[in-house]
Amino acid sequence: MKNILIITGEASGDIHGGKLVQALLSKEPQLKIFAIGGKAIQSAGAELIFNIQSLGVVGLFEVVSHLHVIRKAYLAVIQSLKTRSIQQVILIDYPDFNLRVARVAKRLGIPVSYYISPQIWAWRRGRIHLIKRLVSQMLVILPFEEQLYKDEKIPVEFVGHPLLEEIHASYSREELTFKWGLDHNLPLYGICPGSRKSELDRVLPVMLKAVEIIKRKIPEAQFILPVAPTFTRQDIESRLTSFPVLITLIEGDASEVMSVCDILMVASGTATLQAAIIGIPMVIVYKVSPWTYWIGKNLLKIRMIGLVNIVVGEKFVPELVQEAATPENIAAKVLEIFENPQTIRQMKEKFNIIRSKLTDRKASQRAADAILRLFRSSRDLSAPAGTIQ
After folding, report:
1. Which of 77, 90, 253, 340 has the smallest count of CB within 10 Å of its CB?
2. Tens of pLDDT along 101-143?
């Protein structure tokens, strides 16, 4: 049996991991894939050893409050490495957890592929030396990341961004809005607060207050919110109790939801690239705990947090972060863009640049090919004896 362990810790990684599992099994059907993941990875054919729904945290102090869950996931990994004859580990993002796993894998002589790099270009650049010691192969999805690893002589391949293969070429606004009971002729605003519980706690409330302001100014405005796969519909509905504005909740493909919107309020993260690929104007909003923000502000080595802005190299999408992320600021910026066709046109021109930089729709296939090359080159080597501390 050829056993692989895949580990991710959040919704976007689960979606990308699901595509990767499909690609791996299509090329090597006899693989047995175990995973820490969610619905997408499981549906693709992997056996879950731990469900990531409880791992969706961000920031030092948010992580501290979830240490018992994180430890439980870590112990599940150790148990699998001990008992399932794992021959290769594939890490997807989630660096604080995954680099610790990489240490154990290295000790056991198990090759490690890292798909979707930690954001070393933004902060904690010193991690690249740890990666050099522990990781056999980096598979990066942003074009500028490749050179960072080449400079350190770390085996690396730019495979393209998996979002391109997860988003349809076109969507019908009229058909989708009809299906969801909305009017395609009226303004439609999207609310994308993120896929972590901490984001529901800090980002969603200010977005909702901004919704009230927008609704007062534009009474015909409609609002729609895609339910992240890490949440249930009830998780969101419980936060909308007595909320005076109707918000349509949609479970399933977030790309469909984004595609019908005139403009989005979106939490910083992969969703910003998703919106850019589809071509929907946006305002980036983000809040974390005060201490996490203070620490991050002193560690960050870039002046932007939005991936769309980082890929292009300029802050063309507004970023409202921490103290700037007030309901008044969010509503004002959303309405300013919505009412300015020239701004929208310029933003969409930048989105075209992003699409061209992220290459074609074959990231998962390329990543699977690279992983299997490493797998085939190392699977006949016996791992050195070792113990797990």
Report:
1. 340
2. 999 999 999 999 999 998 887 667 788 999 999 999 999 999 8
Cα Rg for the chain, rounded, in angstroms?
Answer: 21
Whether residue 281 contacts residue 337, with contact meaning beta carbons closer than 8 Å, is answered with: yes
Which residue intervals of the chain are DSSP H helices? Answer: 11-27, 39-44, 60-64, 67-83, 95-107, 127-134, 145-151, 163-166, 173-179, 197-217, 233-237, 254-259, 270-278, 290-299, 307-312, 327-338, 341-357, 363-378
pLDDT at 169: 61
Beta bridge partners of 189: 223, 263
Q: Which helix (H) or strand (E) holds 37?
A: strand 31-37
Strand ranges of the sheet holding 156-158, from the earlier edge strand across to the other edge: 47-51, 31-37, 2-7, 88-92, 112-115, 137-140, 156-158
Q: What is the enclosing helix (H) or strand (E) of 251?
A: strand 248-251
Count of other CB atoms within 10 angstroms of residue 174? 11
- The residue among 247, 311, 313, 318 whose CA lies nearest residue 282 is 318
- The residue-averaged pLDDT of 367-381 equals 84
Q: Which two tokens stand for residue 189?
A: 């605003």
In whole angstroms, what is the distance from residue 315 CA to residue 77 CA?
A: 39
Structure tokens, 315? 């802050």
Q: Which of these, 351, 343, 342, 362, lies nearest to 311 by C-alpha position?
A: 351
H or E stretch covering 269: none
Between the CA of residue 149 and those of 67, 211, 220, 269, what are the distances in Å?
31, 43, 50, 22
Amino acid at 243: F
